Amino acid sequence: MSDLNTQRTYAIVGHGGSGKTSVAEMLLYKAGVVNRLGKVEEGNTVLDYEPEEIKRRGSIQPGFANFKWNKNQHFLIDTPGASNFNGDLSFSVKAADGAVLVVDAVDGVKPLTRKIWGRVTDAELPSIVFINKMDRDRADFDSAFNGLSEMLGMRPVLLYYPIGSKEDFRGVVDMLSGKAIMFGENGETTEGDIPADIADEVETMRETMIENIAESDEELMELYFEEGELTPDQITQGLKAGVLSGELVPVAVGSALENKGGKELLDTIQTLLPSPLEHKPWQGEDGERASSPDEPLSCFVFKTIADPFAGQLTVVRVCSGTLQPDSMITNSASGEKERIGQLHLMNGKEQTASKTPMGPGSIVTLAKLKGTHTGDTLVSEKDDFKIVKPELAPQLITYALAPAEKGDEDKVFAAVAKLLEEDITLTLSRDEESSDVLLSGMGQNHIEVSVERAKRRSKVDIVLKTPKVPYRETFKVGAQEVQGRHKKQSGGRGQFGDCWINVEPQPAGTGYVFEDKIVGGAIPRQFIPAVDKGIQETAQRGVLAGYPVIDFKVTLYDGSYHNVDSSEMAFKVAGSLAFKKAAEKGKVALLEPVMTVTVAVPDSFMGDVIGDLSSRRGKVLGSESQSGVTEVKAHVPMAEMLKYAPSLNAMTGGQGTFFMEFDHYEECPPNITDQVIAENKKDEEE
After folding, report:
1. Among 546, 563, 599, 636, which one has the highest count of C-beta atoms within 10 angstroms of its own C-beta?
2. Is 10's pLDDT higher than 70?
């Protein structure tokens, strides 16, 4: 087991396209794990190895690596940045002791960066920032750096000041030592003097840095006022304390693709991010447990991977105690015992067996566990400690799945169901109304990629369809004194059922109410539930456009029967006929589901977004702006939101995010009603 004081376990986070995987590849190259620098654009990185990741040039699931840096053990989690694929980011963040937030020097802080940073701060993770892509054409260090405080509300401490930018990015100034570090060929560095043209700016930034460090600690503040300076040791100690408390966020700069800044970033991680022993106690459902090898064993399952050769792999973070190979453990969520074989460490898809026990902070892969799922806690036998699961982001979009060939519905369901173990942000269900297989996820790309994987792995052809909107029908005007009479005579015993009903509209949300006012035995007691059932079954099938009728009251007040020919079936048919007549006599309206939609976009896109929501028959409820990001709330019919995700991406250049939830039903406009009725008629004919 490695020295836990010097071990580091961290997640690399940031918005899609900021270069997280490239940063991770640079660290692996610097540490000697790989002998070439992988590039996402060329599809040859260690951490993006799934065919869908190579095709799309971006991460769709977390990647894992471990390596030694200056003889110290590092565990790295490379997280996806695109909103379609980071719905389970809270699970990866929970498995880490610290975070490296990658910010693009060209695009700076995006609205999605703010959302991701929110997950990191919610988890109270000590963090550092790496401003990447300093060599790019439109790189703007000042804008990216200022955005950290202005948009993310953090107190950044600049540790490395860039020398040059764009094609002239050639080095950094180490603000703590006051030395210039110049980049040579293949990331090699040499020390030199600070260029004269930035010396004054560096001095100003250094003073700001020391003031920020001093202000984070009262004792340091007093020393700084008395002495006017702090020693290098005092600066480092103050910085480390500020990072651990979340007060300060150190900032390094570089270019991952050019292999510039990797050593400096690794040194910052090693010096300032916490060890597993400094992790706050793990919160259980009934108490807490210290992050210590001396505590009983507990491991948090934060990811499941389907490996084509090894089968299902369970990725765990050892939280406390020591995980031994070839041992028995218990899943505290189910109480089921699991046999642990070899412990494996991952570098991308490559696995290496570990013959030594693994302590807190280790990211370990276990094979062939039978009943263990993402979010479970693995503990010693006879222990029941359960780590509290983080919350998942809400799913935003649903598609219906159909087989390319009729009759393969069960194959489609089974193929997609296999994905649910490894992707907990997917939900699979069947629509009772339409019998559609429904797949819900984080966005259109998420659904498409998931279906691609299911097709590739299960060799089944799947067609994606926009799901049916769950419209409803209701009585706007009721109907009084409606008769339902069923009489059939065809030799032998006949069928006879006769009932009289009143139908009245009810307030929204009331549901269906049935009142029995039969007196004097006009309908025998045993047949009254059959009338009720006939009405309910017909209402479920709809009378206008094939959707369930809701929020109405039926009063059964009279009827007649035949001693021989009356039966439950006859009265069920009579109830159905009465209800259909009531629908013709009264007035039935079509209702559509209305969602509460919350959209977050940079201020500059607010007008476009509000205009677009209005064009979707939306009613804007209000907006709120903070740190350059506007949050717009609106009520919008669900039918207008089924394909909103790609539209919002196109409108905002991928900077907008949204979520929605059902709010209420509302009457459809006449043109929409006519359209839905016509579509239903067409479906019935087909």
Report:
1. 599
2. yes
